[in-house]
Automatic annotation (TrEMBL):
The keyword Phosphoprotein does not apply. The keyword Transmembrane applies. Coiled coil: none annotated. Keywords: Membrane, Transmembrane, Transmembrane helix. This is Amino acid transporter transmembrane domain-containing protein. PANTHER family: AMINO ACID TRANSPORTER TRANSMEMBRANE DOMAIN-CONTAINING PROTEIN, TRANSMEMBRANE PROTEIN 104-RELATED. The chain crosses the membrane at residues 21-39, 51-73, 109-130, 170-189, 196-218, 238-258, 270-290, 315-335, 351-372, 378-400, 607-631.
């Protein structure tokens, strides 16, 4: 066995080891991302503004969130060499790869705001819940107040229905906050794949917990009179939109899930199954007719109040923070940190301050009083809505534009080459090709002495870096006609010696100055590769792969293609000709993926516009209603 093959198998086994999240794990990952700090407030919105408006918002947002996820996944797949999701692509990496530096910074800021807003809300609600737990156990809740210094309070201090044992008192520190800090920080310092076991456990306990809440609602007696169809316009309308967006804001974590999913997981099935399951859970479990829930309060306060039906109910309320909220906080912190560091926006030290320290500082301002709900409402349309619903669609449009241009000329900028090195860090063959490509770009820049940019000596040295024609790569082409140019175009002239009547020299198709753009297209695709021709977006990729496999078959008789992650057709086409026998079970293949299924009678671009317009409309409506509630705060 050759060293080349050893390296390929090692890479394959490495990816199999790194990408371990299966279908159930995908459901757990999506469910945990969606069932976070928005859950406690949702039952109140089924009472005011009513179940009709709330359910409509949930249905629309589920549809929008699903396609936003699929659009950003297609943008991940459109990265050269990443057809089977074998690379490591973060959300902000997409922005950095497809857009200019200014747009990249804007996108990073919105992504950072969305992730940190979700983390802060998880910290605050967890702190409030644990403070109530300590109050029940020790009859006192203690903390450091801005006005009174160190203080301990009993249940009478805040009164019934308060979100925190400290009422509206501004607290700098509480014991509950310290407990949350001790639980979150160790998890936040790890990698995302180290938290997979916690995600599974959180998913299972969350289902059991919500089922118990449904049982509690029946035990206490359902009050259908509290759940109206619609109520008059008031401040709760913008709040419900913000909360639902927060509940279904999973797009920002999708790239991180793709990076660790097993190759066998069907992406479309996982996304839609997860979101539909989340919608059903919300509709069946939180539309519970409890007694009136106070404005600016949440279901946790009702369930933990005196007279609750069962000790188990109180236990599940307190476990909510440990099961649903705390595990999601480090996930948002890790993703936020990785996006900032991997794209070189901040150094590791500065990113640590921005993602680990700053959220705790902001949380101290929100751990008491009613400010957390206002924070939730405003951050939903300032950060969460753009980051999860609008930017993914814009990325999708830009990826289509890039893919069309890349299919034409195969050109990559220096920044894109550097990003691809990070994306494909587990594939030595791709890294080797990218390094050669980068050397070639440097060489072409050095030999540009005709325009006065460079010198002759640099050009002479750089010429050694350029590819040379290798006669050993000639293969007979008498079984099919080869075109060089655009698909179905007439044959065009190539550099001297590139095409002859009966042979083709593959490497000679690349001119020394890079002026001739390499393109291998056949007018008839031989079986068994005709099926690969169907996808128009990746036509060049499939065509080049077919070309390499077909001519390898002609030249060697019994050659099978190497792992797709090792020789991506759209990234290093010349390497496909250096094939070696490898069993089919060693191929790193994922199920076919399309953001919009074939049976849906609408083009992806039109559907993307529909998602973008609907999301922008909902966000604008949220802004207008929030402004309305500021002018008329007493209308609920």
């Amino acid at each position: 066995m050759s060293a080349q093959r050893d390296r390929t198998i090692t890479t394959f086994e490495n990816l199999e080891k790194l990408k371990t999240l299966g279908f159930v794990g995908a459901l757990a990952f999506l469910f945990n991302a969606a069932t976070g700090p928005g859950i406690p407030f949702t039952p109140a919105y089924y009472q005011n503004p009513g179940w009709g408006f709330t359910t409509i918002c949930f249905a629309i947002t589920t549809f929008v969130s699903g396609f936003a996820c699929l659009f950003i996944i297609e943008a991940i797949q459109a990265i050269p060499g990443n057809e089977n999701f074998q690379g490591n692509v973060e959300y902000a990496t997409l922005i950095n790869f497809y857009f200019d530096p200014v747009k990249h910074i804007v996108g990073q800021f919105l992504l950072y705001g969305a992730l940190q807003a979700t983390a802060i809300q998880g910290i605050v609600i967890s702190t409030q819940s644990i403070d109530f737990l300590l109050l029940d156990i020790f009859k006192k809740a203690c903390g450091f107040s801005y006005q009174y210094g160190w203080m301990c309070v009993d249940r009478s201090f805040a009164g019934d229905g308060a979100s925190s044992p400290f009422g509206n008192e501004i607290m700098i520190f509480t014991v509950g906050l310290f407990v949350v800090f001790l639980l979150v920080v160790p998890l936040g310092l790890t990698n995302l794949d180290d938290n997979v076991g916690i995600q599974y456990g959180s998913f299972i306990f969350s289902i059991l917990m919500i089922a118990q809440w449904c049982q509690a609602s029946v035990t206490t007696g359902i009050h259908p009179e509290n759940v109206k169809h619609f109520r008059p316009m008031g401040s709760q309308y913008p709040a419900v939109i913000g909360t639902i967006m927060l509940n279904l804001a999973v797009t920002t974590v999708i790239p991180s899930w793709i990076n660790i999913k097993k190759r066998s997981v069907n992406v479309q099935e996982a996304v839609w199954t997860g979101l539909i399951f989340i919608f059903i859970v919300y509709f069946l479990s939180v539309a519970m007719g409890f007694d009136n829930i106070p404005a600016n309060s949440n279901i946790l306060v009702i369930l933990s109040a005196n007279g609750a039906p069962h000790l188990l109910t109180k236990f599940t309320v307190y476990m909510f923070s440990f099961v649903m909220l705390i595990p999601s906080v480090p996930v948002n912190i890790i993703i936020s940190r990785d996006n900032l560091v991997l794209n070189q926006v901040l150094s590791k030290r500065t990113a640590f301050i921005a993602t680990f320290i700053l959220p705790w500082v902001v949380s101290t301002l929100l751990i008491s009083g009613i400010y957390i709900q206002d924070f939730q409402t405003w951050t939903s349309f300032l950060f969460i809505s753009p980051g999860n619903f609008i930017i993914p669609v814009i990325i999708f449009f830009q990826c289509l534009k890039f893919r069309k241009a890349y299919n034409e000329n195969k050109e990559l900028s220096t920044k894109q080459i550097q990003l691809l090195k990070t994306i494909h860090s587990n594939s030595p063959q791709i890294l080797e090709y990218l390094q050669n490509l980068e050397n070639k770009k440097d060489a072409l820049h050095a030999i540009d002495f005709h325009s006065g940019n460079g010198d002759q000596s640099a050009a002479d040295q750089s010429m050694e870096l350029l590819p040379k024609t290798n006669p050993a790569t000639e293969y007979p082409v008498d079984e099919t006609k080869l075109y060089v140019g655009r698909p179905n175009a007439n044959e065009i002239a190539a550099p001297d010696g590139a095409v002859t009547s009966d042979k083709v020299s593959i490497h000679s198709l690349d001119s020394v100055h890079g002026s001739f753009k390499k393109r291998h297209v056949m007018d008839a695709v031989p079986e068994p590769y005709a099926e690969e021709w169907k996808d128009p977006i990746y036509r060049v990729q499939s065509t080049t792969a077919t070309f390499g496999r077909y001519f390898a078959t002609l030249g060697r008789g019994k050659t099978t293609p190497k792992d797709d992650f090792e020789y991506p057709a759209d990234l290093a086409p010349e390497s496909i000709l250096n094939l070696q026998t490898l069993p089919k079970n060693r191929l790193y293949k994922s199920p076919p993926f399309r953001s919009v299924p074939d049976w849906l009678p609408i083009k992806p671009e039109k559907l993307a516009w529909l998602v973008l317009i609907s999301t922008s409309f909902v966000t604008l409506m949220n802004v207008m209603m929030s402004i309305y509630s500021l002018w008329y705060p007493n209308e609920n």
